Amino acid sequence: MKQGRIIGLDVGSVALSVAELQADGSVGRWRSVMHHGEVYKSLMRVLPEFGPLSARDLAVTRSSPLRLKAERRVDNLVAAIRAAQHLHPGLGALMLVGGEKFSLSVFNEQGHYRDSRFNSLCAAGTGSFLDQQAERLGLEGSAALAATALKAQGEIPRIATRCAVFAKTDLIHSQQEGHGLEAICMGLCQGLAANVHDTLFTGQAVPDPVVFAGGVALNPAVVRHLAKLLDRELVVDEYASIYCALGAALDLARVRQEGYVQQQASGEVEAEALWDDRVEQERKTSYPPLRLERSAYPERWSEESYEFQPEHVALPRPVEVDCYRRPESGARVQALLGIDIGSTSTKAVLLNRQADGSASGLDADERQAVWAGFYTRTAGRPLLAVQGLFEAVADWARRQEVELDIQAVGTTGSGRKFIGAIVGADVVLDEITAHARAAVALDPQVDTIIEIGGQDAKFTTLANGMVTQSIMNHVCAAGTGSFIEEQAQRLGCPLPDMADRTIGRRAPLASDRCTVFMERDINHFLTEGYEVDEVLCAVLHAVRENYLLKVAREGTIGERICFQGATAKNRSLVAAFEQKLEKPIAVSRYCHVTGALGVALELREMLERAVLETAFRGLELYTQT
User: Fold this and answer.
1) Cα(411)–Cα(319) distance, rounded to whole angstroms?
2) Model confidence, pTM
């Protein structure tokens, strides 16, 4: 190793950076890369570029793994401040926006540190937020999102950036309103800038110049909006992404100069030798193995299931069709059609005009006489999703060789009014009523509904079949199905395989506060050597804890609990709730289409009370463009 050269290294929640501090105090080579939770592999790719290393000449940040051999460990913020003072003497403030945290450090007139303020427990306004949204938009990272945003012209949509999951809803709405990808990307950057501004720049005045560092500082669209909000220019240099790594190196150089650490000759080693597998990270398994012991759970979801790809409309994924009963070939089937249009998925249920009372041995589930259920992704285009379902319903009738007579149609979900007006719905029902209606039909004694959907979660209590309380998640959506799906995909686990891979597994304790913070914990667990299946299990526990903490009221949870929503198809998630509540959790085989079932049941009751002349415009709507 060259005499006097120091290497600084920082491993953050989403990226690692390496900086070479030369003997004259200048910055030599440097790199910053995303590690995607694979810290060791990323280090082994990057460190060899800096030549043979010595642990005595390596300084790392405190967020870096303990397995890294280094002469000195430096607090991340202290490191960033040292780098800022070194590169910009006399600065007024340092704004640091990274993958999961952001902060503002203020300095006095002499450039000495005064105080700092930080973001809250929510990670809105961080780099990971933009990374998540870029992935949802099909872009290769936040850099591509920034480049796309700079091409925006015309009206910019307002996108709520208070939550990584709720932002998805605004993305969908913006697409529905006709905004282009460029405008949506700019709306995300604008919203993130507003979050940072409103959190950090309130109260006391902030002196100039303001240095902007961290990975987000490399996003010119965010820089532009922050500068406009602050009405001042921001100082952004080429080293913005390596401040913590550079500051760690500077801190080691300082203590050497002050005589606290003596520079000693040591043998140069290859990068692998800096990673000490003998250092045991603290591994705590906080939860016992997941097992479903008290709850009744469907042995099979349907009598037959298949996927149908519509020909008249282009859907990103096929329609999933579940056949619960087989009608007699050649029969005329009088049916009711319930449709649930959600922000993530669109569902439909084909219900027989009359309940089945022909056999006393049938349970409440079977007596509903559901012919089939249909499920597809909304993908920001609810009308196309419904058209795809209509084509799938028509295809079902052809396969069953029956004449289908739909006598009434109803809608529920976030798109119920829009779709209801188009298809000619006979009833438009709110989601709470629809889900409760189905729950009571399946179990007249039900007193608690746990409902976890793609982007929202609800908690409902009932007495004598009537809703007494209903609560929906608000600011945070960390306890939703979208988060489970995203993390399963990120960890290379197909969502249908997640239950089998997690049942019977222990799990470490993960954050239940925010999707971005959960991702940080997941990265940390992978770095510590936990198995992927253990981390998948931790995701389920975290979602459960978030739901019980932020949505449900545990003191009002009753004894007859039903779990609704597509997430209930994850046996291990149901087991996680059972483990915590120590009560049986009922799951119907219609759990993923319960809202649509509730609407169809409401239509049946309306027809029983009076003759209804339907306004339904017909399944043939799927052929219209």
Assistant:
1) 18
2) 0.70
